[in-house]
Design goal:
mainly alpha
Length: 65
């Protein structure tokens, strides 16, 4: 279990974002969601992943100083 937790470190946000994108595209393709909502969801997921990457990069740079 500890190995799995170690593997998940730093990946949870990305896995959640990818899951949101897959869900949005699936809902759109089945007709349960409009295109505008799908685009908003995909951009929101990407925004969360990019923010996570930026925060991590800033945190790493602060540790080096």
């Amino acid at each position: 279990m500890n190995r799995f937790r170690e593997w998940l470190k730093g990946k949870k946000t990305y896995l959640t974002g990818v899951g949101a994108i897959i869900t949005a595209i699936t809902l759109y393709s089945t007709g349960d969601c409009e295109l505008g909502v799908t685009i908003q969801t995909v951009f929101g997921a990407f925004m969360g992943m990019f923010m996570r990457a930026g925060i991590q990069r800033t945190e790493d740079a602060a540790k080096e100083e």
